[in-house]
Amino acid sequence: TSFSTPKKKKRDDGMREHVTGCARSEGYYKIDKKDKLKYLNNSRAFAEEPPADTQVRNRPPQVPEQRRLLSSFTGSCDSDLLKFNQLKFRKKKLKFCKSHIHDWGLFAMEPIAADEMVIEYVGQNIRQVIADMREKRYEDEGIGSSYMFRVDHDTIIDATKCGNFARFINHSCNPNCYAKVITVESQKKIVIYSKQHINVNEEITYDYKFPIEDVKIPCLCGSENCRGTLN
Fold first, then answer.
1. Is the pLDDT of residue 173 over 50?
2. What is the arrangement of strands in the sheet containing 124-126, beginning at the earlier edge strand?
3. Where is the Post-SET domain (predicted)?
């Protein structure tokens, strides 16, 4: 029991040499302060200088590059997409209630500046054949009002049963808004823009621009230059 344990020798690289050949079998041994400081200095220097590929990957984008991309993006899309994203995250405060023009109407609950997106006309995208079938079915069901909006020659948005507040917007011969078709992610959408400043509690209207037909639909907008009919 009085045998003295041999001192553990150090290798040329500074690491302690294991007599038994296994670090686990020799248990815990104290590290000199000099060796500990040397290890801490090396690890600190390594932490302050990350690898080159990490520096490139985590490098923040340059501000001039951001401005260039933003200017080219807004110039090419006429800022419609940016406005549409803003409309999604910050919707205009609107309400629907009884209108003096016809049945229900949509009214502004906050001031809306000119040339702003007011609301998107939401509904089901259907073809002309389906639109004709649904129009006849809606007449049989007693749904007198039409909530179909033509996007192009082949596509129609039906907001009769799957729509939002935009379907309550009434027609006016002197409207304060207008409808515009924009393309978002290769999909056409109808958005209602403001033509002029809209005050609080003012009804939102736009021109339906119905095609001219023999059977006339009377217009009840009551504006000074009222055409008398919607079509």
1. yes
2. 124-126, 156-158, 148-150
3. 215-231
Query: Does residue 208 contact residue 173 with C-beta atoms inside 8 Å?
Result: no
At the second CATH level, the architecture of 85-122+164-206 is Beta Complex (2.170)
Do β-strands 156-158 and 124-126 pair in parallel, antiparallel, or remain unpaired?
antiparallel
Domain boundaries, given as residue ranges, for the chain: 85-122+164-206
Tokens for 193, please give them: 């823009």
Nearest 5°: phi and psi at 66?
-60, -45
Buried b (16+ CB within 10 A) or exposed e, 153-165: eebbbbbbeebbb
pTM for the full model? Answer: 0.60
Q: Is 65 helix (H, G, I), strand (E, B) or coil?
A: helix
In this structure, the chain runs to a length of: 231
